[in-house]
Specification:
This protein is mainly α and 231 residues long. It is 70% helix and 0% strand.
Length: 231
Amino acid sequence: MTKEKYTFDDLVEIVQKLRAPDGCPWDREQTHESLRENTVEEVYEMLEAFDSEDGAKMADESGDLLLHIVFHAAIGEKDGEYNINDVTDAVCRKLILRHPHIFGDENFSDATEVLDNWDSLKRAERGQTSVTAEMKGISKYLPSLIRALKVQKKAAKSDFTLENRKNFEKYEKKVLHFCEISGINNEEDFSRLLFGMLAIADKLGIQPEIALNSETDRFIAEFDEFESNKH
């Protein structure tokens, strides 16, 4: 099956051949669950390739991630869940729906209006009628730092800040005061503080990822109360 240039259809065909009854024993045995960690790893390797600014490496690592998408679709097809055409259909419909200024009659003046409309359409698609629902819709499978920051940014848009939190005087205010008196005002200083906090967590037997996700859940619960009182 040697070609000068392979296409997306060739990739789909190769994966189907690998998973066929007479195909590769390892490929036939894989499931969504068995490939989870590998799929996540490929995402990070693709991001690292982007930072390298090496086009060949970007293409190679993007191909590895695309392989996982096609592979999961092949598993889904065998299990009667979905197939690769459902994947392309879903993303095409989403892009058309969320770009009414391109495929419809809407007019937006800048990128900010485009993003605001995108978020509005996404909320409508997901049936989210509150900011709390949006927060709960942020995947808990994201790294805890990314999830926490996303939640805080959504809260800030609704005028809910750290100062609104219960026990603010006991926790966040002390941290902010410590940063102020310690002269922590740049990325290097902050990164050292954060790195040190991880070491402290380890000494206390605390798992940072779990701890931060738990705190984010508490933050969402407090915001829910705040949002309910506003209405």
